[in-house]
Write a structure and sequence with these properties.
The protein is elongated, with a radius of gyration of 18 Å. It is mainly alpha-helical and about 120 residues long. Helix content is about 75%, strand content about 0%. The protein has 6 helices and no strands. The two termini are about 30 Å apart. The protein folds into 2 domains: about 35 residues; about 80 residues, Helix Hairpins. InterPro entries: DnaJ_domain (IPR001623), DNAJC8 (IPR042858), J_dom_sf (IPR036869). This is J domain-containing protein.
Length: about 120
């Protein structure tokens, strides 16, 4: 019946909303739990291949441009090769720099936000 189909679609939509909210909360917790020191950031940024620039900068897709800039500056100060002599500092800084460039480009940022909403 049509009513059964509509009810199922509404239920699926609500379930999808709950799932997205749950994943957002999990992501937020992992961002908050990460210790904010140079060594842990170097390990985090060089041990994983990040596809999502929000994950690199430890931000959610709702982050504002000023929040992106602030986080970029904070992480850069920790891992910049001029300030950190670790062998992987340049690699970590490049990951941060690339993520920042993507999120500061309005078109690329919208694309990532759309992809994350659809995921």
């Amino acid at each position: 019946s049509e009513k059964g189909s509509e009810g199922r679609k509404a239920g699926e939509s609500e379930l999808k909303k709950e799932f997205v909210q749950f994943m957002s909360q999990i992501s937020q917790m992992s961002r908050e739990d990460t210790s904010f020191n140079a060594q842990s950031q170097l390990e985090r940024l060089t041990s994983t291949l990040y596809v999502n620039p929000y994950d690199v900068l430890q931000l959610g897709p709702e982050a504002s441009e000023p929040e992106v800039k602030k986080k970029y500056r904070m992480l850069s100060m920790l891992v910049h090769p001029d300030k950190n002599k670790h062998e992987k500092a340049a690699e970590a800084f490049n990951a941060i720099d690339n993520a920042y460039k993507v999120l500061m480009d309005p078109e690329k940022r919208r694309t990532y936000q759309r992809v994350m909403r659809e995921a």
